[in-house]
């Protein structure tokens, strides 16, 4: 891939419709139609708005509008102790509270060079991979929902997610807002019998995936609607900072679990699924394949889970020395980073979340241009956003 | 994908199977995991957390309250939904007990931070989730008396956690008592030593040749030098508290705990664990004081 | 360290090419003037020794004027505490990685000395990933990005005037009418109820 092409690719914003001429027919006056999709459109997965300009059905301009769920999480976090922000990170991407916790805990641990006990690391991996299953299965469900298969596949997905959420509830006390990880370890150990149950759930999952694939992957309607729709070129993907499954669907091998090998990820052999074309279908399939890899990691992590403490020697009040740190993990949606600046007090001087959902939306317009408005919905579905994280 | 549409039919077969299996799969809950909510028992698990409540020991709600109104939880609660006013007795002296302890459960997010930071195991999470109220502002603001629940109730909802907490408290109490006893003994020993020393000193004044036994005195004393040091510290600690005006006293005491906390965090990480016991001892002292004062009031 | 980062990056070549760059003490971040930033970033991106093709994170930091105390050894060999006036400033922080070479992390800071009228140079011509993130910095810190092609507010609404992430931001009085147990908010709520301005419930 050449650097030159990555500069050019779509770097100008679209004020004027790019490359689309109004079709002039004799005796007919045509006009671009401006449609505001959202903030309460069912396809936008939350309160998100796309201002689209349509030529007939074709998208000629698309501007995402955010901020409906904005609560200035970062400012709030600068006003309280480090631990106090932990429950708020749950609410960033509310499907993936475990990975959010982990990213924040990891940034904090980097800050004071805190050692995390072995068992805690394994439990973190288990939780993170379960979260990935939850996130991807929900994504696939909603994605198919956006395609028009209303209900059925989504409800199957919800049914499977429910089983994992039960596991989360059992371990952490809450289904979605887990608030489970702490600087230096975990809040509490796994309850008795949890592992057995988890094994059951994980063992049953591939059967469900088989069934799900049978239901969807060969479905002609899905193929037609997703293949070659919203193609993302790898050069643009890298240049636009796209991360996670969306980047890998474009054929770039970049998975922080491999690259950074944070936690104990270097102990698990797993493959990184990648797409070839970078269209919606690839993004959809990459997630399904990633789930299968997650199951592998889960099985191994559960087999190897050591005994021992779950909390390192964390100080009672977290008060890092002055300095700054950027900690990141591979969240289910992409690179979730926390940038913390400390001035030596018990409150962060600057607390910044690098939201994968928001950055992944950068290319939404490029993907949608020239497609029909119904495809815009599909493309947005394949990007995988959660507005709690986009707006923070 | 040989025949166009075969994929769709395969999918349909899956749907049909799922539909049919809901009639046969009920026991395994593989395909029909729906919980029939009000009928089918409770779904409370080991760590279920909803909103916090305050524990009291024994029978008397207010007197058995563990909370000493140290306000740590108020400060640490991320959405700031706890509001505490300390209680005063008739002389205007602060009693280690909250007069007002409000939790706005419409703001509370059940994060359990208050439980984790409370040094007295006084606040824990409830598993009750069926709160439906008519008034958003009044009814969802739980006051102290609504929040108070007995330790027995806690044992009922979270048996393991409650036992661990009780054991922790008992250990703390035992340690405190041991400390107290040791301190008393030391004080007595010190007093004796002092008296002896004075006596010796006076004797020394009288007879200069008696200086040798004085030098031998510490060796004969069972208390090691470090203990002497500790004694001096504990004396120093007790003194200002006794000298202070009654109104200021509890505030100073809370400051002390805070300082202890801050100090322990400010120190290097390596020292953390070694400082821990001291801190618990400090709060233990507070506990004792509180207990004494409580008795004085009631 | 529980985290093994990618290969650390040697900063020497870029410092050689751009002698005016500084390395921040303690953090190891590169500090540049806004005028120079495009060249530096282009160098970091295209030079084969770096190939930092992935701009991960963009954010701002606001520093008010402070007095910093520092221990110094004076001529007589005694340590004394010197008070140093820190002028107000703003930083725009960029985190770069290399996806193709699996390298990281290089932190680059654009230092803006004029806090009253902060102007920075946008990296959008080089990196698309700066687009939304710089808009966010503009929105929350009020830093004007020269060369950004679509600089609008991102999270706050367009009519909003202040910049909430600045350290001296004062929340307007008319937020949060809802009674909470806290005395001060309750008082506020009461005054607003009296004025009949309407609450957030409406
Ligand atoms: S931290 Fe515990 S003892 Fe202190 S005020 Fe809160 S509940 Fe009471
Ligand atoms: S559970 Fe969390 S939000 Fe609720 S009172 Fe405790 S600290 Fe505050």
Question: What topology does this entry show?
Answer:
The complex is a heterotrimer of chains A (392), B (298) and C (202).
Chain A: H1 3-8, E1 33-37, E2 49-55, E3 58-65, H2 73-78, H3 86-89, H4 97-112, H5 118-147, H6 152-172, E4 181-182, E5 185-186, H7 194-216, H8 220-226, H9 234-239, H10 245-249, H11 256-259, H12 280-304, E6 323-331, E7 334-342, E8 348-354, H13 356-360, H14 364-368, H15 373-383, H16 387-391
Helix pairs in contact in A: 4-5, 5-6, 5-12, 5-15, 6-7, 7-12, 12-15
Chain B: H1 6-21, E1 52-56, H2 72-76, E2 82-88, E3 94-104, H3 113-117, E4 123-125, E5 141-142, H4 144-147, E6 148-150, H5 151-157, H6 159-206, H7 211-220, H8 225-243, H9 249-266, H10 269-297
Parallel strand pairs in B: 1-6
Antiparallel strand pairs in B: 1-4, 2-3, 3-5
Helix pairs in contact in B: 5-6, 6-7, 6-8, 6-10, 9-10
Chain C: H1 12-17, E1 22-23, E2 30-32, H2 37-46, E3 54-63, E4 66-73, E5 79-86, E6 89-98, E7 103-112, E8 119-121, H3 130-141, E9 144-146, H4 183-195
Structure overview:
The complex is a heterotrimer of chains A (392), B (298) and C (202). Chain A is built from 16 helices and 8 strands. Chain A is an alpha+beta fold and 392 residues long. Chain A has a single domain (73-391), classed as Cytochrome-c3 Hydrogenase, chain B. In chain A, the strands form 3 sheets. A 3-stranded antiparallel β-sheet of chain A has the order 1-2-3. In chain A, strand 4 and strand 5 form a beta hairpin. In chain A, helix 4 runs antiparallel to helix 5 (118-147). Mean pLDDT of chain A is 83; it is low at 1-18. Chain B is mainly alpha-helical. Among the domains of chain B are: 8-43, no CATH class; 51-157, Alpha-Beta Plaits (2-Layer Sandwich), CATH 3.30.70. Chain B is built from 10 helices and 6 strands; from the N terminus they run αβαββαββαβαααααα. Chain B has helices at 6-21, 72-76, 113-117, 144-147, 151-157, 159-206, 211-220, 225-243, 249-266, 269-297; strands spanning 52-56, 82-88, 94-104, 123-125, 141-142, 148-150. In chain B, the strands form 2 sheets. In chain B, strands 4-1-6 form a 3-stranded mixed β-sheet. In chain B, strand 2 and strand 3 (94-104) form a beta hairpin. In chain B, helix 9 (249-266) runs antiparallel to helix 10 (269-297). Chain C has helices at residues 12-17, 37-46, 130-141, 183-195; strands spanning 22-23, 30-32, 54-63, 66-73, 79-86, 89-98, 103-112, 119-121, 144-146. In chain C, the strands form 3 sheets. In chain C, strands 1-2-7-6-3 form a 5-stranded mixed β-sheet, with helices on one face. In chain C, strands 4-5 form a two-stranded antiparallel ribbon. In chain C, strands 8-9 form a two-stranded parallel ribbon. The model of chain C is unreliable at 195-202 (pLDDT under 50). Residues 67-73, 84, 118, 120, 122-123 of chain B line the site of one iron/sulfur cluster.
């Amino acid at each position: 891939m050449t650097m030159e092409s990555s500069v050019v690719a779509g770097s100008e914003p679209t004020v004027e419709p790019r490359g689309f001429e109004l079709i002039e027919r004799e005796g007919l006056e045509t006009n671009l139609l401006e449609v505001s999709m959202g903030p309460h459109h069912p396809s936008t997965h939350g309160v998100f708005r796309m201002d689209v300009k349509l030529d007939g059905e074709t998208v000629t301009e698309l501007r995402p509008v955010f901020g409906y769920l904005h609560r200035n999480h970062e400012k709030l976090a600068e006003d309280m102790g480090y631990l106090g922000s932990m429950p708020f990170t749950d609410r960033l991407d509310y499907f993936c509270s475990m990975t959010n916790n982990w990213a924040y805990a990891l940034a904090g641990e980097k800050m004071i060079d805190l050692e995390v006990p072995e068992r805690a690391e394994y439990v973190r991996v288990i939780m993170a991979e379960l979260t990935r299953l939850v996130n991807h299965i929900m994504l696939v469900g909603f994605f198919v929902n956006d395609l028009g298969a209303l209900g059925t596949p989504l409800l199957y997905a919800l049914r499977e997610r429910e089983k994992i959420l039960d596991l989360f509830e059992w371990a952490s006390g809450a289904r979605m807002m887990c608030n489970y990880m702490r600087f230096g370890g975990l809040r509490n150990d796994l309850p008795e019998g949890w592992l057995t149950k988890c094994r059951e759930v994980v063992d049953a999952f591939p059967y469900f995936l088989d069934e799900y694939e049978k239901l969807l992957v060969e479905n002609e309607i899905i193929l037609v609607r997703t293949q070659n729709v919203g193609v993302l070129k790898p050069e643009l993907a890298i240049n636009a900072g796209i991360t996670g499954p969306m980047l890998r669907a474009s054929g770039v091998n970049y998975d922080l679990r491999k690259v950074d090998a944070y936690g104990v990820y270097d102990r698990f052999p797993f493959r990184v699924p990648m797409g070839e074309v970078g269209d919606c279908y690839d993004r959809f399939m990459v997630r399904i394949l990633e789930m299968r890899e997650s199951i592998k990691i889960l099985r191994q992590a559960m087999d190897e889970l050591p005994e021992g403490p779950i909390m390192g020697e964390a100080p009672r009040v977290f008060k890092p020395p002055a300095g700054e740190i950027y900690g990141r993990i591979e969240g289910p949606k992409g690179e979730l980073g926390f940038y913390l600046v400390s001035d030596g007090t018990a409150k962060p001087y600057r607390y910044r979340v690098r939201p994968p959902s928001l950055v992944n939306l950068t290319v939404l317009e490029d993907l949608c241009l020239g497609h029909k408005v119904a495809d815009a919905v599909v493309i947005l579905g394949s990007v995988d956003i959660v507005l709690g994280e986009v707006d923070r | 994908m040989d025949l166009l549409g075969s994929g769709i039919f395969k999918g349909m077969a899956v749907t049909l199977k799922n539909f049919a299996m809901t009639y046969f799969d009920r026991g395994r809950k593989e395909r029909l995991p729906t919980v029939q909510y009000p009928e089918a028992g409770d779904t409370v698990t080991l760590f279920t957390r909803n909103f916090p409540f305050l524990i009291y020991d024994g029978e008397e709600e207010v007197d058995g309250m563990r909370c000493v109104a140290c306000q740590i939880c108020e400060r640490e609660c991320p959405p700031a939904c706890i509001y505490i006013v300390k209680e005063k007795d008739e002389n205007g002296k602060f009693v280690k007990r909250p007069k007002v302890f409000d939790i706005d459960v419409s703001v509370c997010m059940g994060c359990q931070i208050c439980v984790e930071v409370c040094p007295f195991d006084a606040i824990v999470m409830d598993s009750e989730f069926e709160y439906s109220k008519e008034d958003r502002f009044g009814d969802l603001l739980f006051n102290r008396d609504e929040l108070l629940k007995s330790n027995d109730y806690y044992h009922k909802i979270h048996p393991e956690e409650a036992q661990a907490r009780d054991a922790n408290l008992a250990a703390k109490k035992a340690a405190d008592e041991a400390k107290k006893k040791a301190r008393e003994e030391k004080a007595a020993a010190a007093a004796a030593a002092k008296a002896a020393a004075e006596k010796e000193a006076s004797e020394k004044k009288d007879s200069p040749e008696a200086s040798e036994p004085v030098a031998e005195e510490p060796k004969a004393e069972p208390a090691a030098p470090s203990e002497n040091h500790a004694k001096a510290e504990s004396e120093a600690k007790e003194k200002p508290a006794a000298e202070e005006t009654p109104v200021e006293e509890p505030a100073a005491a809370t400051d002390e705990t805070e300082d202890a906390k801050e100090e322990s965090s400010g120190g290097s990480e390596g020292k953390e664990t070694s400082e821990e016991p001291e801190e618990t001892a400090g709060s233990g002292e507070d506990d004792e004081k509180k207990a004494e004062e409580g008795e004085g009031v009631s | 360290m529980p985290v093994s980062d990618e290969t650390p990056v040697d900063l020497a070549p870029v410092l050689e090419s751009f002698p005016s760059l500084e390395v921040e003490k303690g953090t190891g971040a590169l500090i540049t003037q806004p005028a120079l930033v495009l060249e530096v970033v282009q160098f970091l991106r295209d030079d084969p020794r770096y190939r930092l093709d992935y701009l991960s994170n963009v954010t701002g930091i606001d520093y008010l004027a402070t007095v910093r105390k520092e221990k110094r050894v004076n001529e007589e060999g005694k340590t004394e505490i010197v008070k140093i006036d820190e002028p107000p400033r703003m930083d725009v922080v960029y985190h770069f990685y290399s996806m193709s070479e699996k390298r990281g992390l290089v932190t680059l800071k654009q230092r803006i000395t004029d806090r009253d009228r902060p102007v920075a140079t946008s990296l959008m011509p080089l990196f698309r990933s700066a687009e939304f993130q710089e808009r966010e910095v503009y929105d929350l810190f009020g830093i004007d990005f020269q060369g950004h092609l679509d600089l609008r507010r991102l999270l706050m609404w367009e009519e909003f005037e202040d910049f909430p992430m600045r350290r001296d931001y004062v929340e307007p009085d008319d937020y949060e009418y809802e009674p909470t147990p806290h005395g001060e908010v309750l008082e506020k709520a009461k005054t607003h109820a009296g004025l009949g301005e309407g609450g957030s419930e409406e």
